[in-house]
Amino acid sequence: MASNYHRKPYFRSNAGPSSQKNAITPGLCGLFFTAENEQRAVPEAKNLIDRFLEEETLNLTTEKPVPSEATEKSEDISDSLKTACHQYKRGHKSALRQLETKARNTLFFISPQITPENVYSLAEKMVKLCLEDEAQTRFLAKVIPIEETCYASMPQILSSLSGMLSKHLEKFSKEFDFPPCYAIDFKARNTQAIERQPVYDEVVALMNEQSKGSKVNLTMPDLLIVVHDRTALVQITRLIAPLRVQ
């Protein structure tokens, strides 16, 4: 007699030992989420990432100029969009990867389509959508764009931050004629490799060196310099709001 027993799907929590294949390594760019329920938040995060990466792919497709000689032979615009969408879905599903963070209720995703050039805009679009429609995120709490990961050592962190600060300060100076104010967000999960105060002191020294006149502003910073220590995750970002109203 056939049994009606169905094995419960297995879910690997972030808190357990990580495999080498899914471990976070230096030099990665991706999207980091905090969640109330890690298992149920995974499909929510994937759906959000899929939605906005597909949107970017379609926008790039429609913006490509068509040579005048090939206009008559080119595909209809609707067919082009369908083709681009199909290619995106076929390639992206295998490209989007979730890596283990070694901390409960946190998620980290990488993809070839997530780059330092678009990681901030992707996070901002997610926040805007979820604030308008809270039904999009029942279990996700916050998204943080990760521009770069590095090892949990002070020389590595300072090396990464120095280059990233230089890039962001140059971009800020092109848009505004005053030095940016900034804040520092440091978090350490399941590790004591790096202490808070030395990170604060070194970041302040870097800002004083690269942007004279910049001051700390904890309420409305122009730049939020974030150091999350796990392996470690290091990123600089504009202030990102929660995905849901707390």
TrEMBL record:
Key words, A-Z: RNA-binding
Q: Which residues form the THUMP domain?
A: 128-238
Q: Which domain of life is it from?
A: Eukaryota
Record keyword Translocase present? no
- GO biological process terms, semicolon-separated: tRNA modification
Q: Which GO terms describe its molecular function?
A: RNA binding
Keyword RNA-binding listed? The answer is yes
What name has this protein been given in UniProt? Answer: THUMP domain-containing protein
Q: Which organism is it from?
A: Meloidogyne enterolobii
